[in-house]
Amino acid sequence: MVDALVEAGVVTSGAVEQAMRHVARHCFLPGEDVATAYADMAVVFKRSAQGQPLSSASQPTMVAAMLELLDVRRGQRVLEVGTGTGYNAALLSALVGPDGSVVTVELEEDLAEGAARVLAATGAGPVEVVCGDGGAGHQPGAPYDRIIVTVGAPALEVAWTAQLVDGGRVVAPIVGGDGIGSVVVADKVGGALERRSEVPCGFLLMRSTASTPPATC
């Protein structure tokens, strides 16, 4: 999988290549065979009672492309919105190294708990898994050097801007009601976000809740 991403020019940095070779994707997709886990496609792993997809593991090409756009450095503090399987959080942990940290927020309690178990079992570095509304970020862990959103959002949330350091970067898929839109790269300059680039994409829509504040799982 990684060889193909490098050959295609999707993975361009040694850091992302090393992280993707280090983190075994199949460990985060226990219900899938190895061939499916390493195929370049999204994998839906949770559906509603009506069969509608609620959560999926993003296509490896998109995962790699977004990580390259995020430009994570060693020792940084990163917020992820949308934990899902925990695979992307493990990649982020490998990128920041032992002196950095990752906070990942997941709305679905069962997914957050499952991701936390797999992250611990696979020996991922410092990752804090939080159950809550990712649209609100996670103020207790702020400020963050990087924020990455792995679900389709209608806009760049005010909370994300507020919790990002000046000079920090957010990478997020901004989509319409059909899930189609663009991955937006924006840097915080002088307290405001400045968009740098956009890449076409399709993502499951972000869901939110107005319930109690997030709690660490």
TrEMBL record:
Enzyme Commission designation: 2.1.1.77
An annotated GO BP: methylation
Keywords: Cytoplasm, Methyltransferase, S-adenosyl-L-methionine, Transferase
GO molecular function terms noted in the UniProt entry: protein-L-isoaspartate (D-aspartate) O-methyltransferase activity
Main location as per UniProt: cytoplasm
Gene Ontology annotations for the cellular component aspect, listed alphabetically: cytoplasm
Intracellular or extracellular location(s): Cytoplasm
InterPro entries xrefs: PCMT (IPR000682), SAM-dependent_MTases_sf (IPR029063)
Family matches, as Pfam families: PCMT (PF01135)
Protein family membership: Belongs to the methyltransferase superfamily. L-isoaspartyl/D-aspartyl protein methyltransferase family.
Protein name as annotated: Protein-L-isoaspartate O-methyltransferase
Organism: uncultured Acidimicrobiales bacterium
Lineage summary: Bacteria, Bacillati, Actinomycetota, Acidimicrobiia, Acidimicrobiales
